[in-house]
Amino acid sequence: MKNVDDLIASAAELADRGLSKGEIADELNVSRETASWLVERSGSAAKPEPDTKPEGPDDIHVDWNAIGSGGKRLTYVGRALADLLMETGETADVTIGIEKAGVPLATSVSRELETTLGAYAPAKHQWEEGDIEDLGGGFSRNFAPVDGRQCFIVDDTVTSGTTLRETIDSIRSEGGEPLACVVIVDKQGVEEIDGVPVYSLINVVRVGEQ
């Protein structure tokens, strides 16, 4: 996707397929606020004039389709994420992938680090409107449990840190111990969340911001 119009069209397509706004945010690697704006814009009768850019939320879209569409490339990136985690000196029992995009990455990381594999579905996948705190995520029973285990957390991007914080809280609620989080891209420059360090391959810095 090259511009905002492409994002709006993609959001409309995903909404037509029945995805929630939270799932659309996940698919497009944008914040929930941006996903909501894109969906609303796609259904708006007021279209921008030609050659004008519609104003929207302050966000950065990350398109890593070139990685996700190639199994070999995905494996290489997973190895790089695993290398970041190895530098921490910590040893985990379980690598938790945050659905959807974090799971294939976590699969590669767990293979490299020789851990078991877990999967967490965040509350945002159910989110449409209102307070996301009223919703809950959960661990897939088809993957490894976290109770009594030390865990690494893997996702593709950090937008606000909300999903990582939710996953950390859920691991602790289940009796596990989150050791570190790792992502491909960090949009916010997050170094830690609730005492858990966050590592990224790419850190986005907005030049000129105070």
What brief labels describe this structure?
seven-stranded mixed beta sheet, alpha/beta, 210 residues, Rossmann fold, single chain
Task: Please explain how this structure is put together.
This protein is α/β, with parallel strands linked by helices and 210 residues long. The protein folds into two domains: 4-61, no CATH class; 65-127 and 134-203, Rossmann fold (3-Layer(aba) Sandwich). Helix content is 36%, strand content 20%. It is built from seven helices and seven strands; from the N terminus they run αααααβαβββαβββ. Strands 3-2-1-4-5-7-6 form a seven-stranded mixed beta sheet, sandwiched between helices. Strand 1, helix 6 and strand 2 form a beta-alpha-beta unit. The radius of gyration is 17 Å and the shape is globular. The two termini are 29 Å apart.
Helix content: 25-40%
Q: In angstroms, what is the radius of gyration?
A: 17 Å
Pairing-aware structural class of the strands and helices? alpha/beta
Shape: globular
Arrangement of strands in the largest sheet: 3-2-1-4-5-7-6
What is the CATH third-level topology name of the largest domain? Rossmann fold
Largest sheet: 7 strands, mixed
Count helical runs: 7
Low-confidence parts:
none
| Mean pLDDT metric | 84
Q: State the CATH class of the largest domain.
A: Alpha Beta
Short description:
The chain is α/β, with parallel strands linked by helices and 210 residues long.
Topology:
Blueprint (H helix, E strand, L loop, with lengths): L3 H13 L4 H8 L3 H11 L22 H4 L2 H16 L7 E5 L3 H12 L2 E6 L16 E2 L10 E9 L3 H12 L3 E10 L5 E2 L2 E8 L7
Parallel strand pairs: 1-2, 1-4, 4-5, 5-7
Antiparallel strand pairs: 2-3, 6-7
